[in-house]
Amino acid sequence: MAESSPRAGKIAATPWRRRLDRWLPKVSLVPSGLASLIFVYGFIAWTIWLSLTNSTLLPTNNFAGLRQYKVLFQLDIWWVSVANLAIFGILYVAICLAIGLFLAIMLDQKIRAEGWLRTIYLYPLALSLVVTGVVWKWLLNPSLGLQHFVQSLGWTGFSFDWLINPHMAIYTVVIAAVWQASGFVTALFLAGLRGIDSSIIKAAQIDGASLPRVYLSIIIPSLRPVFFSAIILLVSLAIKSFDLVIALTNGGPGYSTWLPAIFMYDFGFNRGQIGLGAAAATLMMAAVALAMLPMLIAELKERRDGRSH
Amino acid sequence: MAGPTEDGIQRGGPIARLLIYGVLVLAALYFLMPLYVMLITSFKTLPQISHGNLFSLPAPFSTGAWSSAWSNACTGSDCTGLHRYFWNSVAFTVPAVAFSTLFGAINGYVLTKWRFRGSELVFGLLLGGTFVPFQMFLLPMARVLGLIGLDNSLAGLTLVHTVYGIAFTTLFCRNYYVTIPDELVKAARIDGAGFIATFRHVILPISTPILMVCVIWQFTQIWNDFLFGVVFTSGSEHPITVALNNLVNTSSTGVKRYNVDMAGAIITALPTLVVYIVAGRYFMRGLTAGAVKG
């Protein structure tokens, strides 16, 4: 505001329309900027603050230092949630990448019905994760679902009861989540493959390289940026996973499929442990930030390099 | 027999081609299988489900599960089906999509064509919000909604979805408007058009593709949301995703009615599925735009 005062006379001399045009753009950004300051940054600060208080059923402002985090780290159920996130996250990302890359390479072989296939591969992403959870809960139902179907074909000893097995239930979450997202990863890789200059491939083939060899040593390495963004995206999706688990297993059997997002919801809203819920949310944000870090560094590097040219 | 195709790249022979098609069709069946099972199960009767097999067609077709899911299935203690919750979801999704798209378009316009000192900072602020897990906002938002009297209301959900959608729509629109030559806007200004007139007569007419991306992205996100719905509403104000989960976990007479569950799941999925089928092109564009930065 100070910078405009020397020019105040000049502004007053311009017609009101010009003056309006000077202010309208700023004014129209105000609601969004303000909303972001309050509802994003203000709330982040508020949640971090709550995690440092002894809030239980109601939020209080009694500073308690890191007590909530200490309590959190002594809770078995928190470590079950973290371990589940590690299992789920690693398998989810790895399998999605493998299926996505494989299908994208297959689709990139001048396939006739490519558009149709792509549409089919991608539709699960349009569905609510609750719907995905409900469907897979039905398919994985031991007494009437896939297990029952295979047994009815004659393999009476066939067993696929992961949904009700506390040691295996977390893998059913992987199965459903991979089904939902692998078509999307396929589309990302396909877009990456289409961006590769085909003359490089031709040149390599003229030099005598076989097609699998070309893929392994030229094409896949050049997809590095796609791997990068797909991994970041999948990791942050995994950390935020909530709906799917609620619909598929509701955290069970017992606590065997709890994830940090479920811990946060249950402690913050059902058990009246607001401080613990806030601490869990804060750690989730820290985890997402950690996953984002490589991208941010790469972005900054790129910008610095871009400027030096 | 291996031979170069029209692009000059050496590919496999007919057997390899057959194998590739086989793999791709199998993959398609894998993706379609749950949808198929969902559909046929929703048209079966309960005896057909317990005596038949998972993949057999319903014989005869029965629409009882559908009418039950829509009008009298129990979602918790309330047994009026999903229809009320379906309209709840419509009631907050439509305005939230409209508001967040409108704000996104205006923000994108300002951030590219009317830059001022500090406008990049606002963009940075908005962008930063796209990375934060929503769990960070739940406890304060529950408190604020209570304070302003919007707790457990569709208006509250509209507000929440608008606020947290703006960052994405702003990102989409900004990245689109950046590609529009500034000369277009300058010419309009020389002709005497101001901030609003330029937006209405120059920018809006060429914005259809990006507005489609915003609307489809927001519609899918908001309709499919479960977290905000389950935290900020209860009982009769639930969105359909929460009601579906309640329906599946309620067995009124002790008998699980899987056919009703499946009909409910399709009812929940139908709006976004239709949007995807009709406008899949824009859907994909929003996804990749969101994937690169969000």
UniProtKB/TrEMBL annotation, chain A:
Pfam families found in the cross-reference section: BPD_transp_1
Ranges of residues in domain ABC transmembrane type-1: 82-297
InterPro entries for the chain: ABC_transporter_permease (IPR051393), MetI-like (IPR000515), MetI-like_sf (IPR035906)
Gene Ontology biological-process annotations: transmembrane transport
Membrane topology: Multi-pass membrane protein
GO CC terms: plasma membrane
Protein localization: Cell membrane
Keywords: Cell membrane, Membrane, Transmembrane, Transmembrane helix, Transport
Membrane-spanning residues: 27-49, 77-107, 119-139, 168-193, 214-239, 274-298
Major site of localization recorded for this protein: membrane
Superkingdom of origin: Bacteria
Stated family: Belongs to the binding-protein-dependent transport system permease family.
Name of this protein: Binding-protein-dependent transport system inner membrane protein
Organism from which the protein derives: Salinisphaera hydrothermalis (strain C41B8)
TrEMBL record, chain B:
Keywords of this entry: Membrane, Transmembrane, Transmembrane helix, Transport
Domain ABC transmembrane type-1 intervals: 86-279
TM ranges: 18-39, 85-109, 121-142, 154-177, 198-219, 262-284
InterPro entries noted in UniProt: MetI-like, MetI-like_sf
Subcellular location as annotated: Cell membrane
GO biological process: transmembrane transport
Membrane topology category: Multi-pass membrane protein
One Pfam family per UniProt: BPD_transp_1
Family annotation (Gene3D superfamilies): MetI-like
Domain of life: Bacteria
Similarity remark: Belongs to the binding-protein-dependent transport system permease family.
Name of the protein this chain belongs to: Sugar ABC transporter permease
Organism: Salinisphaera hydrothermalis (strain C41B8)
